[in-house]
Amino acid sequence: MNKPFSKEIVETLHKKLINEERDILARVRELKADDPFSNPDHVNDNAAIDTDVREQTGHDTIEAQVISLEKRLFQIQAAFKKIAEKKYGTCENCSKQILLARLQLVPEARYCIDCEKKFVK
């Protein structure tokens, strides 16, 4: 078992997670506001086919981005839980400590690099 990260390191990463959560929530709000389907007049609009296609494509693109951001948000919230349980920085698969450099880049990381590679294949 590896030595747990210092309180200072965990606090620094926790602040980074808080900032990323805030930024993601703001981005999701922006995307939803830009969604052509969020306009209540969209349902009653008798636009030309090409306009409908552009609106549908815009909606689909925004929806995919929101889903991706919400997945990341879920991972960030899971990291908050791990911090509270004093399990932050431990690989969920092999229980080894995740490298600090990895957590600095991806503070919501759930797996060490070796296990992540296994899952990505």
UniProtKB/TrEMBL annotation:
It comes from the Bacteria. Keywords: Metal-binding, Zinc, Zinc-finger. A zinc finger (dksA C4-type) spans 91-115. Residues 87-118 form the Zinc finger DksA/TraR C4-type domain. Pfam families: zf-dskA_traR. GO terms for molecular function: zinc ion binding. It comes from Candidatus Roizmanbacteria bacterium RIFCSPHIGHO2_01_FULL_39_24. PANTHER family: GENERAL STRESS PROTEIN 16O, RNA POLYMERASE-BINDING TRANSCRIPTION FACTOR DKSA-RELATED. InterPro entries: Znf_DskA_TraR (IPR000962), Znf_DskA_TraR_CS (IPR020458). This is Zinc finger DksA/TraR C4-type domain-containing protein. The keyword Metal-binding applies.
